[in-house]
Amino acid sequence: MSLLLDNRFGELPPDNSVNTKLFLETVSHLPTFFDCLGSKVFSLIKSDINGNITKIKEVYLKDPHRYVTLQHILESERQDLGAEWPKAGATLALMWLKRGLRFIQILLQSLADGERDLNQPNLIRVNITKAYEQALKRYHGWFVQKIFNTALYAAPYRSNFLKALSKGEDVKEEECLENLRHFLVNFAATVDAIYDMYARLNAELDYTV
Amino acid sequence: MSLLLDNRFGELPPDNSVNTKLFLETVSHLPTFFDCLGSKVFSLIKSDINGNITKIKEVYLKDPHRYVTLQHILESERQDLGAEWPKAGATLALMWLKRGLRFIQILLQSLADGERDLNQPNLIRVNITKAYEQALKRYHGWFVQKIFNTALYAAPYRSNFLKALSKGEDVKEEECLENLRHFLVNFAATVDAIYDMYARLNAELDYTV
Ligand SMILES: CCCCCCCCCCCCC/C=C/[C@@H](O)[C@H](CO[C@@H]1O[C@H](CO)[C@H](O)[C@H](OS(=O)(=O)O)[C@H]1O)NC(=O)CCCCCCCCCCC
Ligand SMILES: CCCCCCCCCCCCC/C=C/[C@@H](O)[C@H](CO[C@@H]1O[C@H](CO)[C@H](O)[C@H](OS(=O)(=O)O)[C@H]1O)NC(=O)CCCCCCCCCCC
């Protein structure tokens, strides 16, 4: 389970603020998640998410003392970017990044919970579809939704996907799911905290691509 | 017609060698071509092609004197990369880049030649499909081919596409097509020269993605 075990998110402090430096360090390993989906064309999604991370990192590195937490970034940009905000800068990049993270979170949670299509128990389409519907679908126009439906057919088998997440380590399925559950604790809390922050700061947009 | 008019490829010398520096300068404007297709999701393709260009540029900048022409790059890498070659380095990046360029070339040529679906004269699906079949299809597995078929429905109207290529300049359609034809002369010669080079140096691969 090395991909997830080696890159655990830290526990949040009582005020649920997310430390920018730690967040960026941990999250930068996550795009390899999309390699576990098998087909190399998913690397296009990986690039999109990597682009989000790079954008946030660039803003952070301009003034690490000013941007200690993610909330500092949003608040500074709200001041600096004027009418463009929140559809600009690291605020926009994190807005989309959090949706990709939510997609991953729901997919893994659904697997950990043992949700399955009983007719096709070794497929993960039902888990991917659930994650897509809750995290992304409403932000996608008909064209991207259609692409998603096509992409669904290239999704890997459940067993292969779990194996890929373990990066070849020969762990039993139950152990794999146990690792998933451990990973999800702080990961879900972090993603929730980012969503709460966007709601609180009125930084969420619902335009479609 | 500014996108194409402002970024004309140069005439090739008698030996058909392609100057690396000039090629990179001119080709780096072409990915904006994919913005003319309308939907923003085509920016994923743009990133793939930009990635190819960046890779070639990185190799070139390491030793501009060694890599004066594209052929110098392939020959040097053939020596340096051993068994990995040609599926590595700038050789691989240019192998894919040339296919994207061929796609653009055939699509524009087909428009310039007035090829149309008489039942749907303002659609360019027939032109895009021709370009795809000749330039890319054989290198794509069933999954990417399926994505292509879906993407086809997001293709812009002919009139809008020609307008986008002109970047808002208010040119008549006939003038637009005339500009296309001018652009295509050196562009097609350059793409042909790169294909010839790959054949000559035995650098072409036909694996699918
Ligand atoms: C030869 C054939 C060619 C045909 C080509 C067709 C092209 C195919 C296109 C497929 C769409 C892929 C999904 C990517 C969509 C992206 O467009 C969106 C928005 O992307 C955001 O856009 C913003 C501006 O509005 C900024 O630029 C953000 O950038 S910024 O950093 O600059 O601010 C950027 O991330 N991201 C998303 O929707 C996020 C997607 C997350 C992951 C989704 C997981 C799904 C997994 C499914 C598994 C079964
Ligand atoms: C939410 C839903 C999410 C679902 C996501 C699904 C993902 C969608 C994927 C769509 C595929 C897009 C096409 C891109 C395919 C690319 O995979 C290929 C090969 O790409 C090459 O691969 C090499 C290794 O084999 C190196 O990495 C090259 O990189 S290297 O530089 O490192 O060496 C790289 O370019 N390029 C291509 O096939 C080139 C494509 C050229 C342009 C095609 C124009 C078509 C226009 C159609 C208009 C109607």
Structure description:
The structure is a homodimer of 209-residue chains. Chain A has 209 residues and is mainly alpha-helical. Chain A has one domain: Glycolipid transfer protein, GLTP (Orthogonal Bundle), CATH 1.10.3520. In chain A, 59% of the residues lie in helices and 0% in strands. The first copy, chain A, is built from 9 helices and no strands. Chain A has helices spanning 2-5, 20-27, 43-62, 70-80, 89-112, 125-135, 142-151, 158-165, 173-200. In chain A, helix 2 packs antiparallel against helix 3, helix 5 packs antiparallel against helix 6 and helix 5 (89-112) runs antiparallel to helix 9. The longest helix of chain A has 28 residues, at 173-200. The radius of gyration of chain A is 17 Å and the shape is globular. The first copy, chain A, starts with a helix and ends in a 9-residue tail after the last helix. The model of chain A has no long low-confidence stretch (mean pLDDT 94). One ligand EIS sits between chains A (37, 45, 48, 51-52, 55, 92-93, 96, 99-100, 103, 128, 136, 144, 147-148, 151-152, 155, 209) and B (40-41, 44-45, 144, 147-148, 151).
Write the H/E string of chain A, N to C: HHHHHHHHH
**Chemical compounds bound to the protein:** the ligand CCCCCCCCCCCCC/C=C/[C@@H](O)[C@H](CO[C@@H]1O[C@H](CO)[C@H](O)[C@H](OS(=O)(=O)O)[C@H]1O)NC(=O)CCCCCCCCCCC
The overall pLDDT average of chain A reads 94
Q: Count helical runs of chain A.
A: 9
Keywords (chains A, B): Cytoplasm, Lipid transport, Repeat, Transport
Function (chains A, B): Accelerates the intermembrane transfer of various glycolipids. Catalyzes the transfer of various glycosphingolipids between membranes but does not catalyze the transfer of phospholipids. May be involved in the intracellular translocation of glucosylceramides.
Family (chains A, B): Belongs to the GLTP family.
Organism (chains A, B): Hippocampus comes (Tiger tail seahorse)
